[in-house]
Structure formats: C-alpha cells, structure tokens
Design a protein that fits this description.
The complex is a heterodimer. Chain A is mostly helical. Chain A contains twelve helices and two strands; from the N terminus they run E-H-H-H-H-H-H-H-H-H-H-E-H-H. Chain B is flat and about 75 Å long. The chains are: A mainly alpha, B mainly alpha.
C-alpha cells in the first residue's frame, strides 16, 4: 500500500515550537529553519530562480504568441504568420532535442512549442474560416500536442494537456448539447466530465507509481477536484430538481465516485486531500437534498435549525474523522521530524 | 545542502553561539495539527452552518429581528457566545465548529442590524465591517477564525476603497503589510505572536492575489449602491508599490544570505517589475511567490502560481490595451526573463557537487 507523506504540520513545526518556548531567539530560529531546509539557502534560491525564470519566460513568450495570433494583424501576410509560427515550433523543438530531453530547458522549450501549436491551430481556423467549434480547436490542440507532452516527461506539461482535454469536453457539452445557450444544465451531462476526470485520476495514480517524473500528488488531486466539482454539480441538479432533468446517471456516477474514493484513499493510498474535499462535496449535496425536502413540508424554523445542526455536526464530525485518520497514518508512517515537507 | 536533523541543527547553532546548550531539549507531546484542506472543509461547514443558524434564530425571534436594535443585540450576543465557546473549546473540534458558526451568524446579524438602523450606505458600511472584522481578528484566538476575519476585513477594505476609487492605495498598503509579515516570521514567532500573524499573513497574501484579479466576483458585485465621494487615487500607483515591495524583499533576503549581491538582487527585482509594469497582477503574484519561497510556505507559492495563471488567462480579455500591445508585453517580458536566466547562469553559476 502506498502512503502519501503526511504534511499536516507547518514545515519545521518542531523548530517553531522551540522558538515559542523561548529556546530559540529570532536569529536562531531563522538559522535553524535554513539548516533544516525549510527556508532556502543561497543554493536553493539559485535553483528556484533558475526554474522560475526559464519556465515563466517560456510561458509568457508562448502566451505572447497566442495573443499575437488573436490580434489578427493584417499588416503581416498569412504565409508570414504561418511561417513564423512553424519556425518557432520547429526551432524550440530542435532546441529541446539538442539540450537533451528531460533537461529543464528542454522542458521549457517544449512547453513553448505546445503553446505555439495552439496559436498555429487558431491561425488555421482564423485564416481559412474552417467553421470549427471551439471544442474542436482544443481537441485538435490536445491531439497535436501529445507527442511533445510525452517527450517532455514533465508533470506541468501533463497538467496543461489535461486542461486542454477538459476544455474540449466542457465546450462540447456546453456548445453542442446546448447550442442556444439556454443553460439547460441537465442536457449538458456533467457526469461525462466526472467520468473523464476519474479516468485521468486513475491514469495519473497509476503513472505516479511507475514513472519518477510523474511522482507528484498535484496531478491526481487536480483530476480529483475537477471530477468532484462536476459530480457535485450533477448531483445537486438531480436532488434539487427531483431528477426531472435526467441527471440520474450523473448522480449515480457521483455516488459511486464518493464511495470508491473513500475506500481507495482510506485503505489503498493514504491521502487526506481527496477525502476532505469529498466530504465537503457530500455535505453540499446532502444539505441540498435534505433542505429541499424539509422546506416543502416543515416550518422555516424547524428546517433551518435541522440544517444548521446537520451542517455543523457533519463538518465537525468529518474534521474529527480526518484528524483521527491523520494521527493513525502518522503512527504507521511517521513523517520526518524536521525537513522539507 | 541537504537538510539537517534536529541534533545536528542544535550542534551548529551552539557553535555559532545562537543557543546555550548543544543538547536537544525535549518537547511536550501534542496532537498533530490540522492540514489546510481540512480547515477549508471545516470553514465552509461553519460558514454555511452559521447562515442556517442565523436563519433559524431569526425565524423564532421574528419579533426581535424586525427591530434593528434587536438584530444588533442578537449579533453581539452571538459573538460573545462564540468568544466564550472558543475559550472553553480547547482542542475539541465540535465546539470550535459551533463557535465559528455562532460567530458567522453574529457577524451577519450585527451587519444587517447596523445597516438597517443607521442606513449607512455602501462606503460607511464597508468601513464598519472592516473595523468589526479587524476587531474579531484580534479577539478570537482561533487560527481559522483569524484567517477568515482577516480575509473578510481585506474584502471590506477593498469594497470601501473601490467605492472611493482608491483601491490602488489599498493595494500598496496590503503589499507592504504582506511583505513585512512574511519577511519577519522568525521575529514574530520568537515573540510568541505566531498565532496572530500566521493566519493574518496567509489571509492578506490571499487578499493581495485577489486584489489584482480581473473579473473577480468582488468587482462584479461592487457596482451597486449609491455614488459616494471619489478620492480618485490613480490606478497606476499599485504597480510601483508592488515593485518597491519586491525590491525591499530582494534587499532584505539578499542581505541575509548573499550580502555582496544585494545591489544585483535589487536591480533584478526592479528590472522584472519594469518588464511587467503593464500587468500588475503578475507583479503581485511574483511578490507573493518570492515571499512564500523565502518563508518555505508551499501554500503561498502554489497560490501565487495559480493567481499568475489566472491573471494571464484573464489578461486576454482586458480592454485597456490591444491584443497586439498585450502580445508585446508578454513577449518582451518572456524574452527579458529568459535573458535574466542566461545572465544568472553566467554571473551566478551553479556549484557542482
């Protein structure tokens, strides 16, 4: 069973306690935190700036290219614009290959190439008026970018790619299933987004165990949050509208996700994060369901009192449960006393 | 340098004359802390529960709540009750949750009562709410309550200043406060003020990131209400304020670690600020990112990165510049950052192990 390092404490909390009990003065605490690796020393700052400058530089330059295409500058001919974007993609890809895939500057160059591909596809639609829906742009972008994402072997690149996939599906649901923008939420099938993100969650959990470059918690957590948000929406639509808007399937998927997630993250992979947000989502849905039935048959006072007791009680109970789990997991796999979390 | 263990740290500090005894003193056992995301869940529950609680009390005391004074007394009573429950709660989560819900209900009730009785209008009401939240930040000795109160105080301040067309003044004050708080963590911790300053520091950093967030819900909801006095503080004031704070942070941090490079660090901070001058949200995010990194707070660095991405996405829709100009800002800033990285590799080469 994989155990996620529990980081419930402020990093260096033991050192902070020595300052609070008077053992450390302010300069001693500052030095202790630095020695423990909680706050950065000069070398750590250098690494930080190295990463920050190259990644943000590539990101801003890529965004600048997209903004440039969106401006649709007529002073520049279509071939010049296509040529410029293709040259940028080619040059950044060649640079990444020359730098050696896996190196930070190669990853930043591939990030720039992926962003420029979005600009190129937008330019294609803009120039030839392909009539494509927005979701097709994002879907095409995600498909075209996949080889670069695979080559980069870098979690942030996968995060961007997963966002493109989600945008493609969300825009399809919004623009194709509700073409008149009448906000027929029931027709939009948010359950589809839940299924998509549960697939992503499973894939990133699986890959995180096998590939060092994807050994990060934020990717599965990101998928989990997206799945929970869409699932909460589907379930709320169902319980607040007596199921008339045909979200029964979405609500069913949501309930299965909550039950499966509670089991998996409690017994297979210890992670409080999805459990906490799962509980939060469940509190919202149950409150909606109970509230709908209470207000239709009871006095305002009785309904509001019961809801207050329900919400305060369930959130307090959930906090106790999560803290208890945290305690148990720390006994089984104690976190290092001091060190980077 | 790899992280040291506690005994190694005490030995080094003893050598440097920072602690008297090289032996590690024992610490009393205490329960584990609560992760931030569990606090988010608990805070939301208390907020929603507080609303229902208030509605419930209003439903039974309809005679009271029809009077403004009654609402105020009810609100003040709920706040006193929350204070007392917190004092008695200790580590008991259920009581802490009840106290927070009571306080939320009290704040709503008191706010409605004050507005109804005095018919204050938007700006004075925002001022009163700011003072109330600031007082609660000081009085309620609970980290989650302090975080929420400081956050609400910042929102009220934004509302107040936005109506006076002086939100850039607030941005400057907020940036200076956040910079001061996170550069002095060791000092306020050693002075045993961490229970106050840590939640306030997180809340104000979050508020600073929201301050420049375009299309935030706050901006949309502030348009209602009657017109008020306009101070007309120019909006451009925010960017130099962020730049100054960034330069100050660079100077303080460089003096602590690499004093001989202080001038270079300050110059780099000012250069980055000049490049992002037309995108102040990126500057605010950069400030929080640097402060979060300096304090070793991953939540702050994560929030700053998310805010920067959000700002970048929303920047596309801002109307004060054309897309071509914005493209120029982005490409220019990106090129400058890459050039700075190149300069970094030359003037501050990585030491090989």
């Amino acid at each position: 069973m994989a155990t996620i390092p529990v980081t419930s404490e402020e990093p260096g909390s033991d050192l902070i306690r020595y300052a609070e009990n008077g053992t450390f003065s302010a300069p001693a605490l500052a030095a202790a935190l630095r020695l423990a690796g909680v706050t950065p020393d000069a070398a750590a700052w250098r690494r930080f700036f190295d990463r920050l400058l190259i990644i943000s530089g590539a990101l801003l330059a890529g965004a600048g290219v997209i903004f440039f295409v969106a401006y649709n500058w007529q002073a520049l001919g279509r071939y010049a614009r296509f040529g410029m974007l293709e040259a940028l993609i080619l040059a950044s890809t060649l640079y990444a290959l020359a730098a050696g895939l896996g190196a930070l500057r190669a990853q930043a160059a591939l990030l720039f190439a992926v962003l420029a591909q979005g600009g190129l596809l937008a330019l294609l639609g803009q120039t030839y008026q392909t009539g494509a829906d927005n979701y097709e742009l994002f879907l095409a972008w995600a498909l075209v970018a996949l080889p670069w994402v695979l080559a980069a072997r870098w979690a942030p690149q996968w995060g961007l790619w997963w966002t493109l996939i989600n945008l493609a599906l969300a825009l399809y649901l919004f623009q194709v299933l509700d073409p008149l923008r009448l906000l027929f939420f029931g027709r939009m099938r948010p359950g589809a987004l839940v299924l998509l993100n549960l697939t992503g969650l499973a894939a990133f959990e699986w890959a995180g165990v096998r590939y060092a470059e994807l050994r990060t918690r934020w990717l599965p957590r990101y998928c989990g949050l997206l799945a929970l948000a869409a699932g909460t929406f589907a379930a709320l639509l169902f319980v607040l509208d007596d199921g008339r808007e045909d979200n029964g399937a979405g609500c069913g998927i949501y309930l299965l996700m909550i039950a499966g997630g509670a089991w998996f993250y409690q017994y297979r992979r210890h992670d409080l994060f999805p459990l906490a947000f799962g509980v939060l989502s469940l509190i919202i849905v149950v409150t909606g369901w109970v509230g709908r039935h209470l207000f239709s048959s009871n006095s305002a006072f009785g309904s509001l009192t019961l809801l207050a007791v329900l919400v305060i009680g369930s959130s307090a109970g959930a906090t106790l449960w999560l803290r208890d789990l945290n305690r148990k997991w720390n006994v089984q796999a104690p976190a290092p006393m001091v060190g980077p979390a | 340098m790899s992280a040291m263990t506690v005994p190694q740290i005490f030995a080094v500090l003893h050598e440097q004359g920072l602690v008297a005894d090289p032996l590690v003193p024992g610490l009393p056992v205490r329960p584990l802390g609560t992760p931030w995301y569990v606090r988010v869940m608990a805070g939301f529950g208390a907020w929603l529960g507080g609303l229902f609680l208030l509605g419930s009390v209003m439903a039974i005391l309809s005679a009271v709540v029809h009077s403004s004074g009654g609402m105020m007394v009810l609100g003040a009573g709920a706040l006193v009750a929350a204070y007392v429950i917190y004092r008695a709660a200790g580590d008991r989560e259920a009581l802490q949750q009840l106290a927070l819900a009571c306080s939320m209900a009290g704040q709503f009730s008191l706010g409605f009562g004050v507005e109804d009785l005095f018919n204050l209008g938007t700006v004075p009401l925002a001022g009163v709410l700011f003072l109330l939240q600031a007082a609660l930040t000081l009085l309620m000795a609970n980290p989650l309550h302090r975080f929420l109160s400081a956050w609400f105080a910042a929102l009220a301040a934004y509302w107040f200043l936005f109506r006076l067309q002086a939100e850039s003044l607030g941005a400057a004050l907020l940036a200076a406060s956040v910079t001061w708080i996170w550069l002095n963590e060791a000092a306020w911790t050693a002075a045993r003020r961490a229970t106050l300053w840590r939640p306030v520091g997180y809340a104000l950093a979050l508020a600073l990131l929201f301050w420049e967030a375009p299309f935030s819900i706050i901006s949309w909801t502030l348009e209602w209400g009657q017109q008020s006095v306009k101070l007309g503080v120019p909006h451009w004031l925010a960017a130099p304020a962020y730049a100054l704070c960034l330069a100050a942070a660079a100077a303080v941090l460089a003096r602590r670690l690499v004093p001989q490079k202080t001038a270079v660090c300050v110059a780099a901070a000012l250069l980055a600020s000049a490049a992002a001058w037309l995108a102040p949200g990126l500057l605010a995010a950069l400030l929080v990112l640097i402060l979060g990194q300096a304090a070793g707070k991953r939540i702050l660095t994560g929030l700053a990165l998310l805010a920067a991405l959000w700002y970048l996405g929303a920047y596309y829709y801002q109307l004060q510049l054309t897309l071509l100009e914005k493209s120029g800002v982005m490409l220019g800033t990106g090129a400058l950052l890459l050039a700075m990285r190149f300069a970094l590799s030359i003037f501050w080469p990585e030491k090989k192990p």
